[in-house]
Design brief:
The structure is a homodimer of 570-residue chains.
Chain A (H helix, E strand, L loop, with lengths): L1 E6 L4 E6 L9 H12 L13 E5 L13 E6 L6 E6 L3 H7 L2 E7 L8 E6 L2 E6 L8 H12 L4 E4 L2 H4 L7 E3 L8 E3 L4 H8 L1 E6 L12 H17 L8 H5 L5 H7 L20 H10 L3 E4 L10 E5 L5 E3 L4 H8 L7 H14 L3 H13 L8 H13 L2 H7 L2 H8 L6 E2 L2 E2 L9 H7 L28 H18 L6 H6 L2 H11 L5 H21 L4 H4 L3 H5 L13 H4 L7
Parallel strand pairs in A: 1-6, 7-12
Antiparallel strand pairs in A: 1-2, 3-4, 3-6, 4-5, 7-8, 9-10, 9-12, 10-11, 13-14, 14-15, 16-17
Helix pairs in contact in A: 1-17, 1-20, 6-19, 10-11, 10-12, 11-13, 12-15, 13-14, 16-17, 17-20
């Protein structure tokens, strides 16, 4: 294993051995530790001292189902804290196969010219990006596939990242012609832009697989894990995730009254039925699009769709739950074609759909358009690509948009927009939003799946639930596992321990595994503390404690004393 | 003495006795304590739980030269911390004469309609503001003078405050037809806007003067104080402050290389000579404008000018140093007519000229106009009044403008723009900017006057100097004294103690006085701590520690360890 260090100021590339401290870390765990060790926590997130990190999870490159996610990290310009976001596609698998533990991008380019980092086997170089600067992520991916081969993974930013918008994400390609997987959250695309890095291209590693320390142990565990996934009633080929994708939950979230509607002012959307996963499947099949495809090599869940317009021409792949909630119901739009169009635009600009949807909701509340008015909304969103002041404001996310427009109803925690679960009616998620070192983020610990276990409207048990889920999320994000693949590991952690020991021969015990997971959070919290982030900075916005959310008319009422003690048993 | 409590939600007005805890407090000291006691520190600054406070200083209403400033306070939407800003004019004197210790404005108006609080003797009422909504502060003042009598004090916001822009200040009228004194800093105008309060009108109190506990003691001290001011070589009628106004320091600051130029990228401006106080006097006299007028009743310094255009028509009164630096050299403008025009526009919108100038500098760096291009700059600034997205961004100040436009060179501390002294070459001010509970603010402790005492380019002695100055500033802001009147009090604090004892009969000792001053800072720091503001939030921006400032090529290099211990001896 090795690390690739790229100094953008000097255009210098160094291969380094992996320091002992990092050997047993991957994905988010490695990002957290590298940030704490190498990045001054109070630094300017878009300045030269921040570092942009790409890391595969511990399972990256090994043949494990649904486990090739690529983690990207930096100090977030949106939250000001430690940030990891991960994407599907082939990036995690490729870096794993190349035995690249981390790419560390340092400093800022001297000129304003953008460059591309090209990794081919054991060599790496920086080349000019002049032919793709100013382009969206789709055109950039196509152009770089042309230039470097269609079997490369293209990891890139769009206009949002180039303009340093704090809602900018990073796009990564997948198998065949699949583009637009996104490490979307926290403004990592702006960090990439600030480094002067337009793209990372990883040539497909041929004939490389990680050496296995204990092949038998690994294969047995990996096989059992895959079987569990396939046989799961939710995840397998007859499961709702496979059939309807992440949007399978639209109906349930709407019934709970937690479906963000018209800038989080209601929890139930009258057109929710038009946005359900079942509807996606029906439309996609009728229009001869694709359902049940995968974003990562070897994924057995295959939740992905390719959504076409009425004429059968693909609009975007894949329409997902969070996007549906944030640019659909949250903007008063009850039409999947509209959602898909806005989704495509965000993906192309390289903009987090959650942050963009929340920002647009705030802008509409301020009167810049009307809820449900697709034309007006497109008019706002397209300015992101044009780089107008209005577009930059939207691209900087909900908090900045609320600040500029003087709006109080801004659904953010730690400066980051909330995903598709209103915390007033899914209070476990509220606890996660208000305590996670990542800011408001469902992937940091989503209580939706535990709604039958802990009453989503009650206070009791929420803080314990959130902590449990946050620890699991840290594990997922550090191994490269998709969060939909978590059930088999939750019910039998030994499967994960065996896979890791099978690959690396570390002889991890259950205690080692548990410490590993918890250390991720501890490290991130410490980074944030050193960055000057205090408990008050994490809080749920004031209005959500006071404005009842129809139709349940619930407020967020988990006491601060609970929030402040979530990590006491970490 | 009494307090006036105004509930904007219920349109309810209550006269209250002054609780014992507040009896011996005034101005900033009273604001700090009221905020700590009554406002939840982590609340939304533009939400219902913040309170807007108006307080005269301890000397307000008494016949003391240069001592009638009106303090305004709230939790700042710009810094997130405890905020006091004060203005000249007749407001402080009138409230003092009416024995109103504080006006406490609570909650938010139910509808979006604005109201006016009218105080006439011992009665007060809320009336509709429909005739002045949407107007700038000049037209609002004129209209309300018409409506309520020309001898009223009109305290109001312009469009910036109505739009909740976080750079909005509050304007107050002075004697005769004098308008546009400003409690400019920290976005207090936005707090006023969020309450639905367009203006406070105070009818001139006739025949009311505070009872004096010890008339002889008071008169003797007040007379000695006035004599000291009059005889001071700097302040008296032959002094530079009187002759040239606050702009008398342009030459010296420029020579020090501390004169903010082109978005704080240089410390010396090639056209500085065109911006000097001497030049103002020359032009104003030639054009038959006014110099040497006063903003407060009884001021013997009289530093104010009324700056006319070439045809003799008044543009604005008064052109001051900070405005000259921020909308002059900082924007590459070397022409006083341009400065006066931008000054007028800011005043009329009710926008802090420091925040506006810093925001415009950042916007120009981002390419929205060119340094020195008056037409382009006016084009940007006028959008504040129009309420466009660009205008709102500028009106929200430098930090927001930098965020939206992706600019790293943003001269702020605690979210508030720096005034006209680059901290790299006047390091004492850097310490004040980076530690004051008020954020970057020269009035919180300006080391310029001590430049011969402590080397402005050195590190040694800066933290002690800053603390000393911050304590003095707290005293000034709490007594209603103008900061130009501080020299006699600094050299002989007994004068202040005697004036206070003469009015109130409290029998203060030097120790009481000292504790009073220090308590202001302690209280504010505690509020900020409870608001979640950490030491890291106060810091000088990273780039100022790294980018040498021509021509001295100095960086800000006072170590964090010094900053973190400034208040150890408080």
């Amino acid at each position: 294993m090795k690390m690739l260090r790229v100094d953008m100021k000097e255009s210098r590339i160094l291969w380094e051995p992996v320091p002992k401290e990092y050997e047993q870390l991957g994905g988010r765990a490695l990002i957290a530790k590298l940030l704490l060790n190498e990045v001054p926590p109070a630094c300017d997130a878009l300045g030269p001292h921040n570092k942009l990190l790409f890391t595969p999870g511990l399972l990256g490159g090994a043949i494990v189902a649904t486990a090739g996610r690529l983690s990207v990290g930096a100090k977030s310009p949106l939250t000001g804290g430690s940030k990891e976001a991960n994407a599907g596609g082939t990036g995690g698998d490729s870096l794993g196969k190349l035995a690249i533990k981390a790419i560390v991008v340092e400093n800022r380019a001297k000129s304003k010219q953008f460059q591309i980092l090209v990794i081919d086997g054991d060599s790496a170089e920086l080349v000019a990006a002049d032919d793709v600067v100013g382009m969206g992520t789709y055109a950039t991916s196509d152009k770089l596939w042309e230039r470097f081969g269609a079997d490369s993974t293209v990891i890139c930013i769009g206009q949002a990242g180039e303009y340093l918008m704090t809602g900018a994400g990073i796009s990564a390609t997948g198998e065949r012609d699949q583009r637009s997987n996104h490490a979307a959250r926290g403004g990592l695309g702006a960090v990439m832009g600030s480094k002067g890095l337009k793209a990372v291209v990883v040539r497909k590693p041929l004939g490389r697989t990680p050496k296995l320390a204990n092949e038998e142990l690994f294969r047995k565990a990996a096989k059992a894990f895959a079987q569990e996934l396939i046989q799961s009633p939710k995840l397998g080929t007859k499961g709702s995730q496979h059939l309807y994708g992440t949007a399978s939950i639209v109906g349930a979230v709407n019934e709970m009254g937690s479906f963000p509607t018209r800038n989080f002012s209601e929890g139930k959307f009258e057109h929710a039925a038009e946005l359900r996963g079942e509807k996606i499947r029906e439309l996609v099949l009728a229009r001869e699009g694709k359902v049940g495809t995968r974003c990562m090599p070897g994924c057995v869940i295959a939740c992905r769709n390719l959504y076409p317009d009425a004429s059968g021409k693909p609009i975007v792949g894949t329409v997902q739950y969070e996007t549906i909630a944030l640019v659909g119901s949250n903007l008063g739009l009850g039409n999947l074609d509209d959602v898909a169009t806005l989704n495509y635009m965000c993906n192309d600009f390289g903009l987090d759909t959650i942050e963009a949807g929340a920002a647009l909701g705030v802008a509409i509340e301020a009167g810049l358009a009307k809820f449900g008015d697709m034309e007006g909304i497109v008019g706002l969103l397209k300015q992101v690509g044009d780089g107008t002041v209005l577009g930059r404001m939207i691209g900087c996310g909900a908090a900045t948009t609320g600040r500029v427009l003087g709006i109080r109803r801004v659904p953010v925690c730690l400066g980051q927009a909330m995903p598709g679960y209103d915390p007033r009616t899914l209070k476990g998620n509220g606890v996660t939003y208000a305590t996670s070192p990542q800011g408001a983020d469902h992937t940091a610990g989503n209580a939706f799946g535990a709604r039958n276990e802990v009453n989503p409207l009650g206070i009791e048990g929420q803080k314990e639930l959130s902590l449990k889920l946050q620890i699991i999320a840290a594990m997922l994000d550090s191994t490269g596992l998709c969060l939909f693949a978590r059930p088999p590991i939750i019910s039998n952690p030994q499967l994960m321990i065996d896979m890791i020991n099978g690959i690396y021969g570390w002889g991890w015990t259950k205690d080692d595994y548990d410490r590993f997971n918890r250390d991720v959070l501890r490290t991130e919290l410490e980074f944030n503390r050193r960055a000057g982030i205090s408990q008050k900075d994490y809080r749920i916005p004031e209005y959500m404690r006071e404005e009842p959310l129809p139709p349940h008319n619930a407020v967020f009422d988990v006491p601060d004393s609970d929030l402040d003690t979530v990590f006491d048993t970490l």
